[in-house]
């Protein structure tokens, strides 16, 4: 999954809907999110990512983040979420499944 733009109070509901659709329509248990195009992510956006992680874990799956920009990486570090999510420095191309504009 590729996310581009900002994940905030205004775009988070659309991202949440996309995760819901993905999880309902797909048997996917391993989702990697390309964060290289995300310029900003606030607490609302982090909550959407955590919710998706929880839902995937409930079905025995995993959610990983790839290539976060420095600002997003700092948020992950400050909140301690870098230890909750598996965070890749680069995007593992073979694992990407869906493209999404935030």
TrEMBL record:
Gene3D superfamilies: STAS domain (3.30.750.24). Transmembrane segments: none annotated. Residues 1-98 form the STAS domain. InterPro entries: Anti-sigma_ant, STAS_dom, STAS_dom_sf. One of its GO terms (molecular function) is anti-sigma factor antagonist activity. Pfam families: STAS. NCBIfam families: ant_ant_sig. Belongs to the anti-sigma-factor antagonist family. This is Anti-sigma factor antagonist. The gene is rsbV_1.
